[in-house]
Amino acid sequence: MQLTELIEQAVTGLGFELVDFETSPRGRLLRVFIDVPEASKGVSIDDCATVSSHLTRLFAVENVDYDRLEVSSPGLDRPLKKLSDFERFAGQEAQIRTRLPVNGQRNFTGVLAETIDGVLHLHGSEKKYELPLELIDKARLIPKF
């Protein structure tokens, strides 16, 4: 089983959602970003400690070699990675960068609308965009204060 699959299975089993997973160039640092599926509740320090403790024990059993493990919330500018992320955060503003230009442009900002047949509908300030999900390189929520 790959490390990402192992982490996702463990995090999901604890009732959290794996948002992202990063490793340092030599794999010595593991960063795990978790979220709570309920939109009204955020990730607490106790949640991070619970996941960290569980992963530490799991990595010992699975002989995963690493020096440091960091578990945290994804932050207010949460990355959007999966189709379910775009659906869950519909109605919120996001910044999106595509791998290839769409209508001559790669950077987009707007309100997330529906996702139909693998195409994200984004409502910009002056224009509506249709962005194929497979072309999206990075997407992040824009925090409102």
Walk me through what this model shows:
The model has no long low-confidence stretch (mean pLDDT 92). The protein is built from three helices and eight strands, in the order H-E-E-H-E-H-E-E-E-E-E. It is an alpha+beta fold. It is 23% helix and 39% strand. The longest helix has 17 residues, at 45-61. The strands form two sheets. The protein has a five-stranded antiparallel β-sheet. It has a three-stranded mixed β-sheet with strand order 1-2-3, with helices on one face. The protein is elongated. It has two domains: 3-72, 2-Layer Sandwich (GMP Synthetase, Chain A, domain 3), CATH 3.30.300; 83-141, SH3 type barrels, CATH 2.30.30. The termini are far apart. Helix 2 (45-61) links the parallel strand 2 and strand 3 (68-72).
Strand content: 35-45%
Query: Helix share of residues?
Result: 10-25%
Overall CATH class of the largest domain:
Alpha Beta
Q: Provide a count of the helices.
A: 3
Q: What class would the helix/strand composition place it in?
A: alpha+beta
| Overall radius of gyration | 17 Å
Could you state the oligomeric state of the chains shown? single chain
Cα distance, first to last residue?
Answer: 41 Å
